[in-house]
Amino acid sequence: MLASIAQSGNDMAKNWLRLAAGAAGSGAPADYLAHMGVNREHVGALQAEYLEKQKALWQALAAGMPDTGVRAAPGDRRFAAREWRDDPYYSYLQQSYLLAAEYLEKLVEAAALEGQAKERLRFTVRQWVDAMSPANFAATNPEVLRLAQETRGESLTRGVAQLIADARRGRIAQTDESAFEIGRDLAVTPGTVVHENELMQLIQYAPAGAEVAKRPLVMIPPCINKYYILDLQPENSFVRYAVEQGHTVFMVSWRNVGPEQGGYGWDDYLEMGVLEALRTARAITRADRVNALGFCVGGTLLGAALAVMAAKGEKLVESVTYLTTMLDFSDTGQIGLFVDEASVAGREASLGRGGILPGVELAAVFSALRANDLIWPYVVNNYLKGGTPAAFDLLYWNADSTNLPGPMYCWYLRHTYLENKLRVPGALTNLGVPVDLGKVDRPSFIVATREDHIVPWRSAYRSLELLGGKKTFVLGAAGHVAGVINPAAKKRRSYWSGTSTPQDADAWLERASEHPGSWWPQWAAWLGKHKGGARKAPRKPGNARYRAIEPAPGRYVKQKAN
Fold first, then answer.
1. Which of 98, 206, 327, 504 meets the CB 3.0–4.6 Å disulfide criterion with 190?
2. What is the secondary structure of 241-267 as a DSSP string?
3. Does 23 or 517 have the greater pLDDT score?
4. Whole-structure pTM over 0.85, yes or no?
């Protein structure tokens, strides 16, 4: 068995080297790129440069230790084992691979393509290059071979068993899922479900002290994920932090929809989700207005709902927090590479009138955006080394995918990602009224994260131009989730803030000040100005109309995607 796997991996590695060498001569990759308008003289110069570097590498190998100064990028953990540095064979494999990858990337940049076509080519070539890393094959990964020898093949046997198990579940295990249970280890902030309908449950969290703010805080999480990203373990729970700041917090827990809910659309999510949650929270607390928070797609839904309320003259919300939210979809990052007229029309034909988009499909897309972080390390660890992934709450949440109704998903794709109409005053009609984000005149606190690959921070910054009211913009370090879930107590990472908001995002960053630690305290101070005073904490959740249904986290969040 070991010999068979090794031979298979060796063949794949040889094919990679053959393709890379072909790209430097008259092979398919170079010809393909030449047909896309790459100047042949430029291609010839790149080929000559590549061949010269490979020649120098061969000469170094013949001398006993290949070292031409080619190095993996800082933070690239694929080549961390000592053999990649100290063993001539593996050092050569690594450097030859990196040279070929560099060459193909230069060919891509030389292609006479623009805009999304160029970005798609970059993405496709990067996916292929990442997949062909010698670290991804048993025969060319020194750690895999060493472990197989030490365990007499047991590591490979375990790996095959885990491959079969993952094939049955339809996804790669990224964490030890047996280590967590919703309501036991995650989503444990005390609370009660006080309202529910076909699309959501509304949770009211128990107060932390004798007094609470008069105005409650209503959180709208993304409907493409479970809400407990905002309520992971107690030490990194954003919900718990907000409760400890003296707010009565309400949370929308979106239903993991099944066939019975497959006909719901965007307007249903606005009416039955966002607006019903805001109105219910105000009724329970008897407040004049509520404070609202939206995360990612939840923020997009919240922005649209606020525009509906503005058009109808409904004064329900005092302040708004947008966490890594896009309202202007001019630049959607790599996700936009998956969206064009043909793909959207295909989805509309299959799901536009009803049906379910499986959550596992969206999860696969998000993983593909960061394949070297969310795919290949687990392929190597789980299947080649037979290892068990570590217990990590954030990755457990990441794997807990959520289905979406087809009509809602198709409307969202076409009118935001494809046509970018939400930013245009009056271009869309939601709940019977034209929406205009400029009429949303509420104070807003907008949070973006600098390394976000889902909501590029400059796209989030464009919300400043669209929204009315007084706006505060903060830029956190790290990515889409880690930059948001950054507990103040841990004093990790940093964030940027500024007093002026020029039209250009980079101009804002040049003038902004960097602060160590989390942005949570600055947000808490800002929200405190909109709490409307204090009142005695309620003795029990809900009221005579909205009675307790069940303890948090409720049933909906525990429903698994099919």
1. 206
2. HHHHTT--EEEEEE----GGGTT--HH
3. 517
4. yes
